[in-house]
Amino acid sequence: MFKLNLKIALRNLWKNKGFSLINIGGLAIGLASCMVLLIYVAYEWSYDKQFTNNDKTYIVYQNAPANGKIFSWAWTPNVMAKEVQEKIPGVKYASHSTYPRAKLITVGENKLSSKAVFADQAYLKILDYKFIKGNETQVLKNVNSIILTKSFAQKLFGNEDPINKTVKLENQEVLNVEAVIEDIPNNSSIIFDCIMPWALFEKTETWAKEGNWGNNMCLTFVQLQDNKFFAAANASMLGIYKRNQKDNLAEAILHPLTKWHLYSDFENGKSVGGKIDQLKIFLLLAFCILLIACVNFMNLSTARSEGRAKEVGVRKAIGSSRKSLISQFFLESILITFISTVLAFILVEISLPYFNNLLNIKLVIDYNNSGFWITLFALMIFTGFIAGSYPALYLSSFEPIKVLKGFKIKTDSSVSVRKVLVVGQFVFAACLIICTAVIYQQLNYVKNKPIGYDQSNLVQIAIQGKMADNKKLELLKTQLLASGATTKVTFFSNDITESGNNTTDVEWEGKNPNDVISFNNRGIGSDFIKTIGTELVAGREFLINAANDTNSVMLNEAAVKMMKLKNPVGAKIRHWGNERINVGVIKDFVVESAYQKVAPMIFFPSSTWGSNMIIARLNPNQNISSSLEKIDALVKEMEPNYPVNRKFVNESFEAKFQDEKLLGTLSNWFGGFAIFISCLGLLGLALFMAEQRKKEISIRKVLGASTGNILTLLNKDFIKLVAIANIIAFPLAYIIINKWLSAFEYRVPISFLPFALAIIISVIIAVLTVSIQSIKVAKANPIDALKYE
Amino acid sequence: MIELKNIEKYYANKGVKSYILRHVTTSIKQGEFVSIMGPSGAGKSTLLNILGMLEEPTYGEYHFMGEDVTAMKERQRIELYRNHIGFVFQAYHLIDEMTVAENIEAPLLYKKIPGAERKSRIADVLDRFNMVAKKDLFPNQLSGGQQQLVGIARALVAQPSIILADEPTGNLQSAQAEQIMDLFKKLNQEENITILQVTHSEKNAQYGNRILTIEDGVIKEDVSVNG
């Protein structure tokens, strides 16, 4: 029976090639979209889960009150790990380490800038990276030692065995290669090329040696013996700052490693989500697209019921029970799902490289993973059952004598079910159109919002090695200007597109002693304002000879506002315990999120504590590539030991929109797919309706209706459906989009435009789809249809 | 074999009952060849459908081989039906997607007959109907008469005790019709299969041994024919 049914299903597919194509194609696109999204979600979900005891591992977060809010970040004092290990109950290991930082590693003439982590031995016990070579138990004991990742070792030494060979760190320390580990997987929060002992970090950066509860400078991992200790340990962590430093207001909490990547947003010191919210949207999108594809299948299968009715009748008349008919139709839907899955697979494999490129990640299908096959199989069966359920129940319900006698099947109920399904599809499609439009509006709005300086033609060059010297920098600046490649050059203590480096240690007259206000702390060189193209609002800049101006600071407008200074210029300010005078106010410019208001910022002359970046404005009259070549040559001449690290500011700035761009791109693509699949469903319904109304249309034509009249008649119903779908979609989309926008301080007002767009697009698409089909019927010779009556 | 007592069938439409069958009481014995005749709309087909358990009477009793059909559950009825009743239709009603052999096989599958026996029975039937060469053709590749032969073969292969035929020759030319009627007669006489046919043609009715005439839902006449 099974074999025969299978054969018949295949013959049916072959006989109705057009239908099969729409059906399988729609389902395959739906399945492929769903699969790509699921692979992406699984990838994000798998972050930091490659370690053996990932479920027992935690990151220490600091909750620090400032500006009336609580800021949470995974920066902790260097003494935290030791204290946690000794005093907190249930702790197995506690480690302190740096975040990956750029370090120059050389072997002979081979100079490579690497991402390096400095860590203690406990670090490798908590995060059990896979060792390829070397003695796991002995690593990081020796101060001058290093562990390389496989690919980094390859870059340094080629195919030679690197163990016990030496490399040089920053051209100073000679390190012995002790071990080689597997490359760090992309789905890790911490990605590096090499690990060096914490002791080496203390040796090279002497300030790090001293234990200081006020200086949050490293990353602390904690592994518990068992999760039953978590409540006690976490409770005990809360007061750890206060116990060690009386006036420290910060609290510490344990944040699970497995949630580090996805739950990174904190509000009032509590985890409130993060990337997981986006992931949930994608998961929902994946499910909805699949559902749309299933609905499509239902629509198309039931639309063909006329053709299948006779078979059902005959089968019942020769002794088939309803149950065996239901199983036959399920078999067919699962067969179609199977074919679609195979096709979807091909689509996924073809499109993955493109998506990886688009999303800038590396997704692969892991064919060795049993979970993958199980999910795929479950997805297939699920789709087959959902898609096949309605056709199976509907088709098997036909009464044999009625269909055999040639009665028209009563279609009222099935048509209304199908209408509901089509409305459902278009509700979803309209919602997606609206949401995508608003996402793009928001992105555009924020991108075009003035950021306070001119990004174009602005480059940043990292200050490395010997360059980090005020005199040499001044010399380099002169050379850069003289070369004609640049028109303005200045120095900055940070990457201008990055946040971080803030202080609450700023006091002024009239400050409420209980207020804690966080300032972004930046050192600027001379010509800063002119170079980046911002404005001086009041007062003056630092003197060119900054050595005579060490007592001065500058503020940005946000700082003035926050400090409530009436006469900002000349105000006395204590910055890091030193008495300073504010000499000028700079217009606000964005260094952090472009979606948030600019935070208070305090500036000091960069020569005091050194700068990390040279910022240069390219000469607009010169060819850009030759300018860049000149710059690189000059920098290389100054510090030949380091590769030149130069980037365009607007490119780095663009990275701030990564998440929203991703959301926009994905909703655009998958929204497009959803609409396309919905159209296929509509096409199916139109096909059916036209078939059903063949006689009516023929009679109308005989009575004198034109093709146009008939088209209007047929389209009217569908436009009504699409209109209803839009009316349902509007409030729904409004709620969703409002919720999404509320996360941004700067946001576009919700306008009429996206809604108008949704209704126009959906109506046009619907009319086109329906007309393609109905024009055939409308133009047909009425006699052909009436002859058989 | 079949006992009908006071069978009624009507459709209620806005409170008005339109009767199809009224007070039909009759019995049919094993081995009879009965022709049901009457003008269009008299209720012949409805009666046949009720006998074939495709339709339920609104009222009345129907005993098939001693069992009360009206009181049966659907599952039992399908079981009884699979084992004892074969249907032949005016429009043949073969499944277009199946070959001749598969069409014949279908009822055996529903009866859950094992594969080896299915094969031998199909081969047997094909042989008897001289259609071995056509077994892999699809219905639309056959003439009407050939299609009806397949229809009868399909009804016979399940070895029913009764064949219900609804104007089996209605769509056929006279030569083909004669062939079909001869076949029925042979089946009736040689294999003792009860046959019930609805027909318009006096001539076809003469093949049987009893004629029931229905007019306006009522049995008007019940006469024996001496074939």
Describe, in plain words, how this protein is organized in 3D.
The complex is a heterodimer of chains A (789) and B (227). With 789 residues, chain A is an alpha+beta fold. Chain A has four domains: 181 residues, no CATH class; 204 residues, no CATH class; 153 residues, no CATH class; 199 residues, no CATH class. Chain A has 25 helices and 26 strands. In chain A, strands 17, 18, 19, 20, 21, 22, 23 and 24 form an eight-stranded mixed beta sheet that branches. A six-stranded mixed barrel of chain A has the order 4-5-10-7-9-8. In chain A, helix 9 packs antiparallel against helix 14. Chain A is elongated. In chain A, 40% of the residues are buried. Chain B is of the alpha/beta class and 227 residues long. Chain B has a single domain, classed as 3-Layer(aba) Sandwich (Rossmann fold), CATH 3.40.50.300. In chain B, helix 3 packs across helix 4 and helix 3 runs parallel beside helix 5. The radius of gyration of chain B is 18 Å and the shape is globular. The relative contact order of chain B is 0.20. The mean pLDDT of chain B is 88. The interface between A and B is medium-sized, with 24 and 28 residues. Chain A: It is found in: Cell membrane.
Instruction: Work out the radius of gyration of chain A.
Output: 34 Å
The counted number of beta strands of chain B is: 10
The main β sheet of chain B shows up as: 6 strands, mixed
Architecture of chain B in CATH? 3-Layer(aba) Sandwich
Structural class, judged by helices and strands of chain B?
alpha/beta
Structural class of chain A: alpha+beta
Give the overall shape of chain B, derived from the CA principal axes.
globular
Pfam family, one (chain B): ABC_tran
GO molecular function, one term (chain B): transmembrane transporter activity
Domain ABC transporter (chain B): 2-225
Protein name (chain B): ATP-binding cassette domain-containing protein
